[in-house]
Amino acid sequence: MKKYVVVLCVLLLLGSVVFAQGQADTGKTLLKVGMVTDAGTIDDKSFNQGTWEGILKAQKEGLVDAKYLKPSGTTEADYLKEIGNLFDAGYKFIITPGFKFETTIYEAQDKYPTAKFVILDGEPHTADYSTFRIEKNVVAVYWAEHESGFLAGVAAALQMKTGNFGFIGGMEIPAVQKFNWGWQQGIKYANENLGTKITVKAENILYQGSFDNVAAGQQIAASMYDKGVNVIFAAAGGVGVGAINEAKARVTGGKNVWIVGVDVDQYPEGMLPSGKSIILTSAMKYLDRASYDMIKHELAGTFPGGEVLHLDATNDGIGIPVENPNLSADVVAKVQELYGKMKNGEVKVADSQIAGLFK
Amino acid sequence: MKVKIKSNAFLIAVSAVILGLFAGGLLMMSIGSNPFEGFYYLFRGGLMNMERIGNTISTAITLMLVGLSVAFAFKTGLFNIGAAGQMLVGGLCATLVAHYVFIPRPFYLVVIIFCAFLGGALWGVIPGILKAKFNVHEVVATIMMNWIAYWSIYYFVPAYLKGPSLETESKSIAIEQSLRSPWLTEIFGGGYINLGIFVAVGAIFVIKYVLDKTTLGFELKAVGSNRFCAEYAGIKVNRNVVISMMIAGGLAGLAGMTYYTGYSRNIQIGVMPSMGFDGIAVALLGASNPIGVLFSALFFGMLQSGKGFMNAMTEVPPEIADTIIATIIYFTATSVLFSRFWDSVGRKKRDKAQQKIDQDESKEEVSHE
User: Fold this and answer.
1) Residue A119, Cα to own-chain centre: how many angstroms?
2) Are residues A155 and A176 in the same domain?
3) Domain range holding B3?
4) How far apart are CA B82 and CA B277, in angstroms?
5) How far apart are alpha carbons A307 and A298 in whole angstroms?
6) B243 and B338 share a domain?
7) Closest chain A residue to the Cα of B45, Cα to Cα
8) For each of chain B's 369 residues, which pLDDT tens digit applies?
9) Which residues of A touch B304 (CB under 8 A)?
10) Do the domain assignments include residue B355?
């Protein structure tokens, strides 16, 4: 028996010698940036991934040392534990994607006063919404989803010229609702000013109620397509993945249907074996830019602590992808022109349900 | 000369843990990390300061009660895979109490413990009755009960306990109505430790007493060892099956209470608590012995709460900690191999000792001649 123990020890020792890697000495200490993922994985093609890509960009430029942690659950306690882990490991600039972190950051801002937090898509408040408070070590970032949805609506309408459009939302939360308001306003704008003939029916504006029910997304998309809808804007996370799957199946079967992606450029998600994608365009929030910019601000000493930022067309926070293989050059040019008008305030998009919009 | 090496539960558990850690170390080496560094931070992450010890214990509390639930059913020869569902129902009952019952703290604690136990017991007793009356296998029945609980909560929580904005979780429980306690939180520097620790440790000793010192415990164990023999001896097997599942369910219900009103302070829909299944591992490693469960839950709790810090400090992915847990379970599940191994080691030594004695004796005999 002793022999085995000795052999084990020797193996372990050898291993540790062979594989031991001292901390790489870079000479200067980099800013350590941590991220806690929301529900889902780091490669979710959505919130987590978008945020992480911005951090990775800063890391590639040699600006920061980055690390992400995936909590074991999605409760406030799970989130706070991972923030504690990052903090204790020296990652004192922490980025958290998603409104689910609102109550977590509310607690963390006091618990870790020497750390800095960026919360995307929300701002710190108590669980019952009675108190909103943002400390000097926190920046909250919101996006103008309605403007993003508006641009995607105009682009889709211009490309299709005629047809019947639908919308699938995840949970009925403000960020998703705003996408919906913007989408319908964009279609309306194109119908009234750019000569398109797109119909939108109330029955084709639906909220599924979750962000992860892939099967339900597929069913809803199937029934919409059956009712004659050609383009669905799916602002619904995993539910949207179901819709994308349905569109892929139909296009493979010879039908002509489309999906408009959300949050990030979802073009690769809709890719068919033929090399074409069923993603017409995507209503984007530039998550990567937000996380990258916040890091840059921190490094430059201009971290806007205590502020709630609103990213929209005026500060290039939203838009459609730069590359849109499924849109004609003419359409892209027109959308660009419109984007310019939004920038200088000529065109305004409402962020709430105004007359004529379906819920 | 006496040689004492013989297989026992403790030795098997310890060898499973060591081999599990060793396998984890090999994995770390294979991805180019230093296993000593990895383990150092894994343990540090669980035990570095009072707050982290508190978090380790708070994770262990739930595991302890689930482990106890599974272990208790094991003793009666039943495999309770339904701890997750029982946790959900027990947790839901506790959450309801936390939202709607406002009475002085001591009474409140009694009521919440009673309701959580009752909820879990209800979810456990149904498979128990099905098993006793219709011989429906409890594994199938408890798994189905898990999903019934899962979907019932999926619709119940948004309908009756909806939070102000989130559709996916119940409104959170006021800290005074939760199981967290200011003095405990203070001692452990703000960890998630809660009064559940007393429930869990209390349950361990009550169950140990029931199993070891009461007629009921004797009957339950007899049914578990050989139900036909027990029946022949005049023990009411079916009654004992139902009672066993009821108590096992109740214990899991208490686990749900410690998790949903102590650790997280709300119930999320669409989430099957993974502790319900981790508890099986805890029971296995603890050899279905209440005291064994106590220590194995603490060990797993430490791994669970230390893995995040290991991940933050090294390039070792957190899945390594899960792999270690899985490997340990694997080694525990194949405990027959260990008991054979330790027995054979013991036998060799005994044989050697015996040989030596024989030789000495024969020498003596020779010298006498």
Assistant:
1) 13
2) yes
3) 1-33+318-350
4) 8
5) 14
6) no
7) A85
8) 444 455 577 888 888 888 888 888 888 888 888 888 888 998 999 988 898 999 999 999 999 999 999 999 999 999 999 999 999 999 999 999 999 999 999 999 999 999 999 999 999 999 999 999 999 999 999 999 999 999 999 889 988 888 776 667 888 888 889 998 888 888 888 788 899 999 999 999 999 999 999 999 999 999 999 989 999 999 999 999 999 999 999 999 999 999 999 998 889 888 889 889 889 989 988 888 999 999 999 999 998 888 889 888 888 776 777 787 788 777 777 766 777 777 777 777 777 777 777 777 666 555 554
9) 72
10) no
- Inform me whether the C-beta atom of residue B51 falls under 8 Å from chain A C-beta atoms: yes
The C-alpha of A76 sits at a distance from chain B's nearest C-alpha, in angstroms, of 7
Hey, what are B12's tokens? 């098997």
A38 and A182 in a single domain? The answer is: no
Contact A15/B271, CB-based, under 8 Å? no
Same domain (yes/no): A337, A210: yes
pTM: 0.82
Q: How far is CA A325 from CA A261, A287, A330, in A?
A: 14, 22, 12
* Spatial CB neighbours of B315, under 8 Å, sequence gap ≥ 6: B31, B32, B33
pLDDT by residue (tens digit) across A272-301? 998 899 999 999 999 999 999 999 999 999
* Pair (A165, A276) in one structural domain: yes
What are residue A172's phi and psi, to 5 degrees? -85, 70
Per DSSP bridges, beta strands A31-36 and A93-97 are: parallel
Q: Do B1 and B139 fall into the same domain? A: no
Q: Which residues pair with A132 in a beta bridge?
A: A125
Domain identity same for B340 and B294: no
* CB within 8 Å: A74 and B51: no
Domains in chain B: how many in total?
A: 2
The verdict on B34 touching A (C-beta cutoff 8 Å) is yes
**A123: CATH:** 3.40.50.2300
> Do A63 and A158 reside in the same domain of the chain?
no
- What does the radius of gyration of chain A's CA atoms come to, in whole angstroms? 23
Domain count, chain A: 2
Q: Which residues, 6+ apart, have CB-to-CB distance to A230 below 8 Å? A: A160, A163, A164, A165, A256, A257, A258
Distance CA B43, CA B52 (A): 10
Q: Is residue B41, in this structure, part of any structural domain at all?
A: no
Strands A138-143 and A116-120: parallel
Amino acid at B74: F
Residue A244 lies in a domain: yes
> Contact A127/B32, CB-based, under 8 Å?
no
Find the length of chain B: 369
Structural contact between residues A324 and A155, judged by C-beta atoms closer than 8 angstroms: yes
Q: Side chain identity at B140, as an amino acid letter? A: V
Exposed / middle / buried, residue B120 (Cβ in 10 Å: 0-12, 13-18, 19+): buried
Domain of residue A191 covers 145-284+328-343
Angle at A199 between CA A198 and CA A203, to 5 degrees: 145
Cross-chain Cβ contact B190/A77 below 8 Å: no
Element holding A163 (H helix, E strand) = strand A162-169
**A-to-B residue pairs, Cβ atoms closer than 8 angstroms:** 94
Distance in angstroms (rounded) separating the CA atoms of residues A32 and B100: 45
User: Which of A2, A8, A16, A93 is the best mutation test for B, with the most CBs of B within 10 A?
Assistant: A16
Distance CA(B290)–CA(B64), nearest Å, equals 9
Residue B303 sits in the same domain as residue B261? yes
Alpha-carbon distance values, A287 to A113, A151, A290, B166 (Å): 25, 17, 5, 22
Check: CB of residue A136 under 8 Å from CB of residue A157. Answer: no
Whether A248 has a pLDDT exceeding 90, the answer reads: yes
Distance from CA of A242 to the nearest CA of B (A): 18
Q: What is the mean pLDDT of chain A?
A: 88
- Coil, strand or helix at B191: coil
